[in-house]
């Protein structure tokens, strides 16, 4: 790379057409040189090299302009955040990782004798205070880390953007960004217009592999009764105004928004306000205008905490147990009574399933109770179907044009939590998991850009 010659070219072109013309001229000259020297011999290689050259030259030009501008030295003294007065301590160099590659800037530096801390006004103005990452580089990390592992994000940044960011650095900044999003989610509730007749609220929980320190003393499903996971609860709001060829409601594209965390929803006698996850669900419902919808439906797998929440906060909502979850219970009972793979057990389960489809829930309950004394699984499910009888009136719900399956919620558990946090070898702290879950929810709910605009405005 002809750095010195390039600077001369940039300077001459800059006098005629500004910075953009200077960069274009230097990129063109550099690519012509590479082609002429036989460095690149096919179009793909030319594209790759041209991109690298363009970014490097642009970074050099920006650094040159910023370093020549000393207006960030705003006098001999500036107020410090501690309340003291910081004095000008010269100019200091720092290399930042940016979308253009490494960028070394010389910035005015102020030091406070009261708190013994220093700061750079330019770092603050550029949104790079207390970090070596530019906002664009941090945004790349956030979007990539929401979708893949920290190691995968590091590799993607290197492959697609030419940025060298270590996995541990990705982890630190992605989790910090997730915590920012979580805080922003608490502060900012911008109700979205509800332009559909029916809104669905789905609730569920899924295990997140946790570090040993996070499960000490907790009961779980291991043979010794211990736990290896912590439960992340998820709330999904969506609409389904369209139907498939069979007339079954189908989730409207882009309508699903997610909110999740490893939080409790259990209420203690001493609580004066709803527990953390209940507050989270209420915020999501308010944001989506759930209360303003003509029809409100709550879908779940039958877990008592779901219906306790629904009864307390949305007593007028229609409650539906996911039909496939209910049918799954019947096949589990069949296996417990007749054994795995039994033909008679399969016929028994199919008959109960038909009864369920036809709304004959009492017959299902009677069949289960007939085995209650000899089969614990049948006894437990007789209670399960009895307590959820009204939530299993599937012919009625279908006639109303309502969803009776919580595939959107199950998909949320798998997509929001499972696909990102349950990869091989992963073990999470609660704080780390919640940060990445918040980041992923923002990206998958199409709210990341709104958050980023608020963040940029706050740092301006």
Concise structural overview:
The chain is an alpha+beta fold and 460 residues long. Helix content is 50%, strand content 16%.
Note the topology:
Elements: H1 3-36, H2 43-68, E1 77-79, E2 85-98, E3 101-112, E4 118-119, H3 121-125, H4 135-145, H5 150-161, H6 167-187, E5 198-209, E6 229-238, E7 242-243, E8 249-250, E9 257-261, H7 276-288, E10 295-300, H8 304-313, E11 318-321, H9 323-338, H10 343-357, H11 361-369, H12 376-387, H13 394-399, H14 407-421, H15 430-444, H16 448-459
Parallel strand pairs: 5-10, 10-11
Antiparallel strand pairs: 1-2, 2-3, 3-4, 5-6, 6-9, 7-8
Helix pairs in contact: 1-2, 4-5, 4-6, 5-6, 6-15, 9-10, 9-12, 10-11, 11-12, 14-15
Number of E-type strands: 11
Unreliable stretches (pLDDT < 50, length at least 5) are 1-16
Average pLDDT over all residues: 89
Cα distance, first to last residue?
35 Å
What Rg do the Cα atoms give?
29 Å
What overall geometry do the principal axes of the alpha carbons give? Answer: elongated
Please state how the strands of the largest beta sheet are arranged side by side: 9-6-5-10-11
What do you see in this structure?
This protein is α+β, with helices and mostly antiparallel strands. Helices cover 50% and strands 16% of the residues. The protein contains 16 helices and eleven strands. The chain has helices at 3-36, 43-68, 121-125, 135-145, 150-161, 167-187, 276-288, 304-313, 323-338, 343-357, 361-369, 376-387, 394-399, 407-421, 430-444, 448-459; strands spanning 77-79, 85-98, 101-112, 118-119, 198-209, 229-238, 242-243, 249-250, 257-261, 295-300, 318-321. The strands form three sheets. A five-stranded mixed sheet has the order 9-6-5-10-11. It has a four-stranded antiparallel sheet with strand order 1-2-3-4. Helix 4 (135-145) packs across helix 6 (167-187), helix 9 runs antiparallel to helix 10 and helix 14 packs across helix 15. The protein is elongated. The model is unreliable at 1-16 (pLDDT under 50).
